[in-house]
Amino acid sequence: MDTDTGVLPTPLARIGMIIPAPNKICEQQFNALAPPTLGFHATRARIAGKWRRPIDDLAPHITEITGMLAECEPDLLVYNCTASSMQEGRAGERKILNIMSKATDIPAISTSAVVAEAFAALDVKSVVVLSPYQHNNDIIAYLAEGGVTTLKSVALGLTPDRYGSVTPDEWFQAGVQHDMPQADGIFLSCAATTQIEAVDRLEQKLGKPVINSNQAVLWGCLRRLRGKIGEAMPTRPLGQLFQTAL
């Protein structure tokens, strides 16, 4: 906000984001951490947790919500659910993006795709995976398709309504506890957590890249919209992904 006039800044570009229905975290994080020249508009979808279904079964739902979200005229669409976008591997990810592209001609990305881009940009080939999920099997398989080996997997076994209850300090402590010296990086998987708030601190402690779902999504959005928003950066440090790979 312009403190002299009380006028909110007008975004130079807008993101339309699809998130799982129970997500209580996403909007607050993006609105606080994205540069003010980037606007976010989110819609909820029944795509994960108890609503998890094969991508083919989700197609009508994804089509409908993509069409609705497109009405606010975003410059980029994001399917922001790590678990859902990784559940059927690279082929499932392509299905989701194809469904969205048939519903509108607005470019679309998925959490899974930008996480893979982030690993490639930082030359991360092996990771420790930490998540709030019941298990990380789909995450491990998706990463393996892209040449990233999971050396250790830790799933907290929470239900979706509890994902946001884990504090940034608890994610920091988990990262320190479960780090392996031979791992190139840490992957904090899930878009409905406070993980992003622990990224920079963990990197300072461990001396290696830490990637989180929402961090990677914000990075992927900034990369694709540089032509509209210029060199704007997040409002606080979010790890070396933003320092070395934009």
Keywords:
246 residues; alpha/beta; Rossmann fold; 4-stranded parallel sheet; 11 helices; 8 strands; 17% strand; globular
User: Main sheet, how many strands, which sense, barrel?
Assistant: 4 strands, parallel
Count of domains: 2
Q: Strands of the biggest beta sheet: in what spatial order? A: 2-1-3-4
The total of beta strands comes to 8
Query: Number of helical runs?
Result: 11
Derived from helix and strand composition plus strand pairing, the structural class reads: alpha/beta
Shape, per Cα inertia axes: globular
Alpha carbon gap, first and last residue: 26 Å
The helicity comes to: 40-55%
Q: Which architecture of the largest domain would the CATH scheme give at its second level?
A: 3-Layer(aba) Sandwich
* Uncertain runs: none
SSE sequence, one letter per element = EHEHEHHEHEHEHEHEHHH
Quick one: CATH class of the largest domain?
Alpha Beta
Whole-number mean pLDDT? 94
Any overview of this molecule?
The chain is α/β, with parallel strands linked by helices. It folds into two domains: 13-111 and 215-230, Rossmann fold; 114-213, Rossmann fold. It has helices spanning 26-33, 55-70, 82-86, 89-103, 111-121, 137-145, 168-178, 199-206, 213-224, 226-229, 240-244; strands at residues 13-20, 38-45, 76-79, 108-110, 126-131, 149-155, 185-188, 210-212. It has a four-stranded parallel sheet, with helices on both faces. α1 (26-33) links the parallel β1 and β2. The chain is globular and about 45 Å long.
Chart the SSEs and their pairings.
Layout: E1 13-20, H1 26-33, E2 38-45, H2 55-70, E3 76-79, H3 82-86, H4 89-103, E4 108-110, H5 111-121, E5 126-131, H6 137-145, E6 149-155, H7 168-178, E7 185-188, H8 199-206, E8 210-212, H9 213-224, H10 226-229, H11 240-244
Parallel strand pairs: 1-2, 1-3, 3-4, 5-6, 5-7, 7-8
Helix pairs in contact: 2-4, 5-9
